[in-house]
Amino acid sequence: MECCEGKLLYGSLLSEKLKRQMKEEVEGYRANGLRVPRLDTILVGDDPSSLSYIRGKKKACEVVGIENVVHHLPADISQKGLEDVIFACNHNDACDGILLQMPLPDHLDANHAIFCIDVGKDVDGLTPLNVGRLYAGEPCFAPCTPLGILSILDAMGCAIDGARAVVVGRSRLVGNPVARLLQDRNATVTVCHSHTRRLRQITKEADILVAAVGVPQMIDHTYIKEGACVVDVGINRREDGHLCGDVNTEDVLPYVHMVTPVPKGVGPMTICALLMNTMRSYRLKVG
Ligand code: NDP
């Protein structure tokens, strides 16, 4: 199977493969005299992590051939100043996707700014209308990490239709939307959280287990059904400075069908899904 080493499914390899496919598609548009897809990213201030994320996204866009315009705004910009930039992107026909990098400085109202993004360009899937469409089962831009997780499960060769899926974590950005996407694909889904009783008993029934908890290596083999597809969303920093997930990968490995490693698992697929959404927006506009 592609993108794997043994039972480890590398999101990094999958994202490279999907980016190569998108690159070919963009080259096709260019060859036919069409404009290329464009993503506008809006960054307020100079938060080092945000600057690093923006650089990562820009590099990924360059690989695929998506134009990436960065609107780097001063940290003290007013709410109106920020929203004027968003509206300008909304009205620019050359712009297919808008990404507002979080977090915003404290004096700005992030929810109100997100609300201003044109739902047809909301490639991060954060506007209330997109969220509503997701839960209504209507066409929408799904948030990037959940979308990346679905691509990973497909690459694992996981039969989602009819599967028993358990998602540990119910956050707005990961747990809940991934549960919704799995349900759309006809899985029978249980969402667990910090108040769930007998968690092990529930996860042991899962053909698909998504761990989005934020507790280092909490999921060991005692939580796993033999042959399960396991996606480890967690990114936790250990005392020795290394990253680890919510799953004890080594411990579960003999029991799973496949599992994603941390790092190089879900993380790279999140950016890839942003590009996938931008391409989708472009196709909907250019036809
Ligand atoms: P949140 O903190 O928003 O949510 C964590 C969820 O886990 C909550 O629903 C919480 O329950 C639940 N939870 C916490 N402890 C337990 C427990 N002991 N047993 C069962 N459930 C528990 O985190 P996120 O969803 O934003 O992120 C989860 C992890 O994924 C983090 O490590 C984060 O860094 C990582 N992440 C990775 C991304 C990537 O691209 N790879 C992207 C986004 C996040 P309750 O609701 O009751 O509090």
UniProtKB/TrEMBL annotation:
The keyword Oxidoreductase applies. Keywords: Amino-acid biosynthesis, Histidine biosynthesis, Hydrolase, Methionine biosynthesis, Multifunctional enzyme, NADP, One-carbon metabolism, Oxidoreductase, Purine biosynthesis. Residues 143-283 form the Tetrahydrofolate dehydrogenase/cyclohydrolase NAD(P)-binding domain. GO terms for cellular component: cytosol. Pathway: One-carbon metabolism; tetrahydrofolate interconversion. NADP(+) binds at residues 169-171, 235. GO terms for biological process: L-histidine biosynthetic process; methionine biosynthetic process; purine nucleotide biosynthetic process; tetrahydrofolate interconversion. GO terms for molecular function: methenyltetrahydrofolate cyclohydrolase activity; methylenetetrahydrofolate dehydrogenase (NADP+) activity. Its EC number is 1.5.1.5, 3.5.4.9. PROSITE patterns: THF_DHG_CYH_2. SUPFAM superfamilies: Aminoacid dehydrogenase-like, N-terminal domain, NAD(P)-binding Rossmann-fold domains. Residues 10-124 form the Tetrahydrofolate dehydrogenase/cyclohydrolase catalytic domain. It catalyses: (6R)-5,10-methenyltetrahydrofolate + H2O = (6R)-10-formyltetrahydrofolate + H(+); (6R)-5,10-methylene-5,6,7,8-tetrahydrofolate + NADP(+) = (6R)-5,10-methenyltetrahydrofolate + NADPH. InterPro entries: Aminoacid_DH-like_N_sf, NAD(P)-bd_dom_sf, THF_DH/CycHdrlase, THF_DH/CycHdrlase_cat_dom, THF_DH/CycHdrlase_CS, THF_DH/CycHdrlase_NAD-bd_dom. Catalyzes the oxidation of 5,10-methylenetetrahydrofolate to 5,10-methenyltetrahydrofolate and then the hydrolysis of 5,10-methenyltetrahydrofolate to 10-formyltetrahydrofolate. Belongs to the tetrahydrofolate dehydrogenase/cyclohydrolase family. Homodimer. This is Bifunctional protein FolD. The gene is folD.
